[in-house]
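Researcher: Sequence recovery benchmark, item below. Answer with residues only.
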């Protein structure tokens, strides 16, 4: 998918992919991590790498390669689960989650590449699975255990270099989030929409920053949050990549084929859950659908390494602090909490394979 590019388009393919993928990454709840780096043709003249700037972009020299296709798998060991019912007809639950795993697949397709306008479309599929012990004879967890939590999404990202100093980016994303199966899938029942806008300044090839707003579910229900983007490379070894307060990462460039990252992130999702058996609330009304809000804070350490030319891998480990795993009444405007759950904090580990532009394309770009 990624490399079927017409010959005359190859010269600017890497520049376009880099600029576009950044919009898909740093602001999203499920982001490409870390944000991509600009090739020479996108930020400086081809024969003046690191000197004369042409078009301002959010990325800086030294960041990791652009990711076109990503395969990510993550797993946690067992941890305790305690759920406190907020309605009298529903019992409490205490036990363990013996399995919590996530599979994430992402891909990005460039659509438009102009000197002052770049557009990229992204698609993603995610699945989170749980298993409980003792077996959860509990309406919410029965659904999750049997069908899993899924995300099927598409996004449109635009980056607009205004001049040699200023840039802005915009992204809108629609996702179908919930415990649906293929036969149950309904757009109106599961659709979640998020968007971001950031306006920024490129001070040098090593420093770019911006201010903006994000509409999303990172901290629970859909809300608007401020965003401070700060990308800076201090020297040939150290840099910072941040979208505060959602994520801050320190980067260590071990070589041009190996990078190390350390920092934290705040991750959140909202799932719509259709219950097999309705829950009766305190007013006697039957609830057949709940909204599950999941928010967690992670401390993380990540290593990325080139395997061969266009193929890289990433290994990540860290510790997850669960802030919320609560179910709400979707039919009520005040989103009344129905189940208050506490997931014990736990370590996690993940493995990722991703495809980047081949070096021969990058070399052609530099030599044009």
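Model:
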């Amino acid at each position: 998918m990624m490399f079927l590019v017409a010959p005359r388009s190859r010269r600017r393919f890497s520049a376009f992919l880099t600029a576009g993928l950044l919009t898909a990454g740093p602001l999203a709840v499920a982001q490409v991590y870390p944000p991509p780096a600009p090739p020479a043709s996108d930020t400086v003249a081809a024969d003046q790498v690191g000197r004369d700037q042409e078009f301002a972009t959010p990325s800086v020299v030294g960041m990791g390669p652009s990711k076109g296709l990503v395969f990510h798998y993550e797993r946690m060991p067992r941890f305790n689960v305690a759920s406190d019912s907020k309605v009298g007809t529903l019992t409490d639950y205490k036990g363990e989650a013996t399995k919590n795993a996530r599979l994430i697949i992402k891909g990005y397709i460039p659509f438009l590449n102009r000197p002052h306008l770049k557009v990229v479309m992204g698609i993603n599929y995610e699945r989170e699975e749980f298993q409980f012990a003792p077996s959860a004879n509990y309406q919410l967890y029965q659904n999750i255990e049997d069908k899993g939590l899924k995300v099927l999404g598409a996004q449109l990202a635009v980056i607009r270099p205004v001049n040699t100093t200023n840039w802005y980016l915009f992204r809108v994303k629609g996702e179908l989030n919930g415990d649906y199966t293929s036969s149950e899938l309904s757009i109106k029942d599961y659709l979640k929409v998020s968007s971001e806008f950031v306006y920024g300044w490129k001070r040098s090839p090593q420093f770019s920053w911006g201010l903006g707003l994000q509409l999303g579910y990172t901290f629970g229900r859909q809300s608007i949050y401020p965003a401070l983007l700060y990308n800076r490379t201090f020297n040939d070894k150290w840099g910072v990549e941040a979208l505060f307060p959602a994520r801050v990462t320190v980067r260590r460039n071990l070589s041009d084929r190996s990078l190390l990252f350390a920092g934290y992130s705040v991750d959140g999702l909202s799932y719509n859950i259709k219950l097999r058996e309705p829950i009766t609330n305190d007013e006697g009304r039957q609830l057949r659908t709940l909204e599950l809000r999941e928010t967690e804070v992670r401390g993380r350490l990540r290593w990325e390494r080139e395997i061969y030319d266009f193929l890289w891998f990433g290994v990540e480990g860290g510790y997850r602090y669960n802030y919320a795993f609560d179910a709400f009444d979707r039919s009520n405007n005040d989103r009344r909490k129905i189940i208050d759950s506490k997931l014990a904090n736990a370590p996690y580990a993940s493995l990722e394979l991703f495809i980047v532009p081949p070096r021969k394309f990058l070399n052609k770009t530099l030599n044009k």
